[in-house]
TrEMBL record:
Belongs to the lyase 1 family. Adenylosuccinate lyase subfamily. Pathway: Purine metabolism; IMP biosynthesis via de novo pathway; 5-amino-1-(5-phospho-D-ribosyl)imidazole-4-carboxamide from 5-amino-1-(5-phospho-D-ribosyl)imidazole-4-carboxylate: step 2/2; Purine metabolism; AMP biosynthesis via de novo pathway; AMP from IMP: step 2/2. Residues 351-465 form the Adenylosuccinate lyase PurB C-terminal domain. One of its GO terms (cellular component) is cytosol. Keywords: Lyase, Purine biosynthesis. It comes from Oxalobacter formigenes OXCC13. The keyword Lyase applies. Its EC number is 4.3.2.2. This is Adenylosuccinate lyase. It is an enzyme of class 4 (lyase). Catalyzes two reactions in de novo purine nucleotide biosynthesis. Catalyzes the breakdown of 5-aminoimidazole- (N-succinylocarboxamide) ribotide (SAICAR or 2-[5-amino-1-(5-phospho-beta-D-ribosyl)imidazole-4-carboxamido]succinate) to 5-aminoimidazole-4-carboxamide ribotide (AICAR or 5-amino-1-(5-phospho-beta-D-ribosyl)imidazole-4-carboxamide) and fumarate, and of adenylosuccinate (ADS or N(6)-(1,2-dicarboxyethyl)-AMP) to adenosine monophosphate (AMP) and fumarate. One of its GO terms (molecular function) is N6-(1,2-dicarboxyethyl)AMP AMP-lyase (fumarate-forming) activity. GO terms for biological process: 'de novo' AMP biosynthetic process; 'de novo' IMP biosynthetic process.
């Protein structure tokens, strides 16, 4: 079957292909190849400026040519690398050969069955790069290229896609919190009527949690290493024993690639930062699962209506239904994301001795984990944008819950030393509703100063919200 959105095995590249497109240039196989090319070119350009007699500084025209290999990298270039890899059976070596071919060098004889690719290179560039050809991938192990590529991919996905999507959800929630800061609402603890709050304050709680979670995601340092086969620069020092390879590597990782240098590694960068980042994203996702379930329940209670769209169908048999599908889809996709994120955070920091290959297959699924995450954020945001507050229903529920004022009444009774206040209110209200007049009659018969009685008699369920409005307004 020909590959298409309808035949794709993963819904991320099928049903939801348009919603995950921002991640595709970054985390796809082609994106991975492009980042590998960027690392190889950055290393080569740095070597040209290192002062070695065997490789001289490149001219401006050559540097521009090398930069263009990265900036103009296209799907056809990725396909060519895959053709080379089909023969080499080594993905990083295929990238090295592609770069050499792109600067006008011939491929090794074992690749002769590949159709030649027409290459046009300026004569100055050709001369400079032919001399420097064997400094492409010089002293590197494949993981020097892969780990830094993954680092740049993850950093770009986090900063350009994941965090903006999460922040869009936060901003919409903040808007809802501010608009409904003073809308009194019945709270429910254990599913039972409880001390009133405001709708805005309950949404503000989620905003506060997500702000902190987003800050944790943003704060994770994205690491990289370029120190050879087992992390000791063995090959580097065999060629140039008097060169400061550690600072050279640090400069490439930090200044050319924009990552944080990891000084101590085995053959692989140990992936601890990936675990830290993915745990942080999973925590944000868990908060959103909590939100999705609460909003779903509030829709069920009628506290929210959903804005309908012409042509949409809620049920194949029940025409009246407007299902909260966006929040359900978000919850399901967050679960998928967290399953992958948590597996990665538990598996990736573990490697047998100095290297095993179990991380390689797992790392290829980063796009899946972040794809489900972004898809869930999109569904949640779409659901939030369709919400319409049903203030009448919220107010009606609150007006029918005078029993929630048992708390302030017994608290004031405690202040003035009346015995067994809790027990008295428990007998009056526990497990049963109470009418306004019954509660007020109880208050009038209390041995309290008249001023205290007057304050209690003025109180309604809607007015008993503490500083909820203030908290919602300042989020």
């Amino acid at each position: 079957m020909e590959l298409s959105a309808l035949s794709a095995l993963s819904p991320l590249d099928g049903r939801y292909v348009r919603k995950t497109g921002a991640l595709r240039p970054i985390l796809s196989e082609a994106g991975f190849m492009r980042h590998r090319v960027k690392v190889e070119i950055a290393w080569l350009k740095a070597l040209s400026k290192a002062g070695f007699s065997e490789i001289r500084p490149f001219s401006d025209v050559t540097n521009k040519f090398l930069d263009a290999l990265v900036n103009d990298f296209a799907v056809d270039d990725a396909a060519r690398i895959k053709d080379i890899e089909a023969i080499t059976n080594h993905d990083v070596k295929a990238v090295e050969y592609w770069i050499k071919e792109s600067i006008g060098l011939s491929l090794p004889p074992e690749l002769s069955r590949l159709q030649a690719r027409p290459i046009t290179v300026d004569a100055i560039v050709t001369d400079e790069l032919k001399t420097a050809a064997e400094f492409i991938h010089f002293a590197c192990t494949s993981e020097d290229i892969n780990n830094t590529s993954h680092g740049m991919m993850i950093k770009a996905a986090r900063d350009e896609v994941v965090l903006p999507a999460l922040n869009a959800v936060i901003e919409q929630l903040r808007s809802i919190a501010h608009q409904n800061a003073s809308l009194s609402m019945l709270a429910r603890t254990h599913g039972q009527t409880a001390s009133p709050t405001t709708l805005g304050k309950e949404i503000a709680n989620i905003v506060s949690r997500l702000q902190r979670a987003a800050g944790k995601i943003a704060a994770v340092e994205i690491m990289g290493k370029m120190n050879g086969a087992v992390g000791n620069y063995n090959a580097h020092f065999s060629a140039y024993p008097d060169f400061d390879w550690e600072n050279f590597s640090r400069n490439v990782v930090e200044n050319s690639l924009g990552l944080t240098f990891n000084e101590y590694t085995i053959q692989i960068e140990p992936h601890d930062y990936i675990a830290e980042l993915f745990d942080a994203i999973a925590r944000a996702n868990t908060i959103l699962i909590d939100l999705n379930r609460d909003i779903w329940s509030y829709i069920s209670l009628g506290y929210f209506k959903q804005i309908t769209k012409a042509g949409e169908v809620g049920s194949s048999t029940m025409p009246h239904k407007v299902n909260p599908i966006d929040f359900e889809n978000s919850e399901g996709n967050l679960g998928m994301a967290n399953a992958l994120l948590k597996h990665m955070s538990e598996k990736l920091p573990i490697s047998r001795w100095q290297r095993d290959l179990t991380d390689s297959t797992v790392l290829r699924n980063i796009g899946m984990a972040l794809g489900y995450t972004v898809l869930a954020y999109d569904s949640c945001l779409r659901g939030l944008n369709k919400l319409e507050v049903n203030a009448e229903r919220i107010t009606h529920d609150l007006e029918d819950a005078w029993e929630v004022l048992a708390e302030p009444v017994q608290t004031v009774m405690r202040r003035y030393g009346i015995e067994n206040p809790y027990e008295q209110l428990k007998a009056l209200t526990r497990g049963k509703g109470i009418e306004k007049q019954d509660l007020q009659e109880f208050i009038r018969n209390l041995d309290l100063p008249q001023s205290a009685k007057n304050e209690l008699l003025k109180m309604t369920p809607a007015s008993y919200t503490g500083i909820a409005t203030k908290l919602a307004e300042k989020i």
